[in-house]
Structures are given as structure tokens and as C-alpha cells.
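Box 4.2: Ligand-aware structure prediction
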Amino acid sequence: MITAQHIQHSFKIGKKGKERPVPVLKDLSFHVEKGAIVSIVGRSGSGKSTLLHILAGFLKPDSGTITVDGTVTSDFNETDSAAFRLDRFGFIFQNFQLMPGLTTFENIELPLKLKGISRTVRKAEVNELLQQVGLQEVRDHYPNELSGGQQQRVSIARALITNPPVIFADEPTGSLDSETEQEILALIRSLNRTRGITFVIITHDDEVAAIADTIYHMHDGVLAAGGVHHAG
Ligand SMILES: Nc1ncnc2c1ncn2[C@@H]1O[C@H](COP(=O)(O)OP(=O)(O)OP(=O)(O)O)[C@@H](O)[C@H]1O
Ligand SMILES: [Mg+2]
């Protein structure tokens, strides 16, 4: 599904004129099977989020290629990258990243609006998903009127609304208590099983990593598979 080949990436840091490159990813190669849940663990600053940004096309690697379903995406310009992302990828973040001025319904509807889907179809699809993830009761709430777990459900629904084959998650349970974390993990598992959605999940949390088919460790700018776990 997703293949990264020989990815290298550095950030330039320091004052203007005195910048020096700090290598973050060093000849990293990696493959995610369709329908898998893969987790990436590693210490803070090891380059996990940077890799996710590169896999999703937010950031261009200095060298190397990313291929998604046979399409080389690392050559895309920004417009093509954005269109491809809207079509193929969903995202879940630690801090939810909901639009504060939009209700639950409107936050979930937003990707469909960006895709130019008609109002009638949007309404039907959002209502159906609200049912499926149990958010009908809070459909008219703004994010600041929701619990953390509800906000993460809204962000998962927003990631799902376009029916993407892949969802990237960066510390999806990092802001949740352990009970809510279990709920969100159960939701991710069931989406993987029932819809075959591929998940790439960055986490510091062993319980999150444990739902993955394969756990990768980020270390010294490369990934190493570190143990296979068969969940449930
Ligand atoms: N835009 C940037 N400019 C300069 N350096 C950056 C930039 N983004 C990240 N870095 C550096 O790259 C390294 C990797 O950062 P990254 O955010 O990928 O780490 P991470 O593994 O996600 O860490 P965490 O677990 O804390 O989220 C860090 O040393 C960070 O300081
Ligand atoms: Mg990070």
C-alpha cells in the first residue's frame, strides 16, 4: 500500500547564514501492507512525525521516494499532493485539530465540502456516520462543548467521512484518560476489521502499539521492525 524507499531528510537549524543541517531520517526504507495496522514508536525527537509528514506528502524528503498504491507521490507538487491526500488519507492528531467555530456536524462535513460534494449527499453521509460512531447527541455542539473522547471521535469521523483507504494517527490517545483510550482503540480496531482501513499510528504508549500487526522502532534515522503482535 505505502512504500518508502531510501528516504533522507534533514532540517536546517541555526541563525541565518550560519545554518547547519541536522539529519533526521537517514536512508529509511519501509513498507505498509494494505489492511494492516502499523505502529511506530521511538523516543521524542527521533523523527516519527517527520516521517508521517513525508508519507502523507505534507513535506518533501531531501531524497528517496514514496509510493502509494503504485503511484509515486513524492514527486507531486503541492496541489496534487493536497488532492491526493483529500482522496486517500485521513488524519487523527493528539490535539484533535477540530475547527473551533464549527459544530460536530460541520467539522465532519468539511472534507466533503472541500471535495465539492453536494449538500444533499453531504448531509446524508454525515448523518449516517454520526450514527455509526455514536455522536448524534452532540451533533450541534462546538468542540469546546465536547469531552476529550468525544472530540477524538469527531476527528476520527472527520478522517473517515471521505472513506480513505489509509488513516495516519499521531499520538491519537495522547490526550485521553485510559478508559477513553480503550474506547478509541476499540474503534480503530473495528474500523480496521470491518472496513479494511490501513492505519499508521505513532505512539509512545505500549497499549496503543499493541493493537498493531507490526511495531516499528525509530532509531538513528531508520525504522526497524521490533516484534510482531497479533491483537485480540
Ligand atoms: N520544522 C522543523 N525545523 C527544524 N527542525 C525540526 C523541524 N521539525 C522537526 N525538527 C527536528 O527534527 C527532529 C525530529 O522531529 P519529529 O517531530 O519528527 O520528532 P518525533 O519523533 O515526532 O518526536 P515527538 O515524539 O516528541 O513528537 C527533532 O530533533 C526536531 O527538533
Ligand atoms: Mg511527533
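In the box above, the bound molecule is adenosine-5'-triphosphate. The beta strands are 2-13, 20-32, 37-41, 63-68, 71-72, 89-93, 166-170, 198-202, 214-219, 222-228.
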